[in-house]
Sequence to fold (294 residues):
Amino acid sequence: MYNTIEDLLEIHRSTGEPLHRIILKEEMALSDLSEQQVYDRLRERYHVMQASAKKALSQPQQMVLGLIEGQASCQHGYAGGQSVCGGFLNELMAMALSCSEVNASMGRICAAPTAGSCGILPAVLLAVGQRFGADEQQMLDALLVAGGFGAVITRNATVSGAEGGCQAECGAAAAMAAAAAVLLAGGTAEAAANACAIALMNVMGLVCDPVAGLVQLPCSFRNASGAVNAVISADLALAGQDPKIPADQCIDAMYRVGKKLPMELRETALGGIAAQPAGKAYAQQLKQGAQRAE
Fold:
């Protein structure tokens, strides 16, 4: 039984079992599912992630207001060009944007941990998995680890933008993805925990300010930047960087900071960029469209 990241590390140190096996046993005990059933469910969700990360790369998805329509195909087309970040990071961002487009168009996504942050973990898993030649079983093990880290964050803090701001949604997703990326790259359990801590540090205090109350802007950009946050946090940890503040303390800090955010900055669309003139104009456009539909 584990309640914290440190609990996970202690079990790993004392038993020598890899993180995914520890998390698997916990999931089996809590859900009363067999190992095969757990992996079957993981596989189903992984396939949903694959599909949503690829769907909008070539076909823009239609949605209300269309604020992010075509973002994924735009980035995908640019990924092979003379970019600043190079092909890997641009394709990573394109896949994250694709998931956001699918979500905004009411398509099928996997909330990981939320719909608003649904692009981060799929993009990281697919991009990093391809980089290191991971097979499907390794991908499912990494997804299991991401879920275990997410469970700790959910248990001890929050993954709700309405409760903790975007740091709790995209921040948690990046932390989960960073841990998974470390393990796909062959890193240690301690490095996975450090990557989780770094990813949370990088977005501490990030507000939730959806334009017109829609999960489109700035959500899609934060999915793209959250995926990048995850992979750079993984590389920092793999290089041996010590965050000094343990992952569990970063999780606690995120929760405390989120509680201090004013209501306007927690998914109400009353603050941040949503409260700027352009943001208000889109909200009015949405309202007028709804009135015409009536």
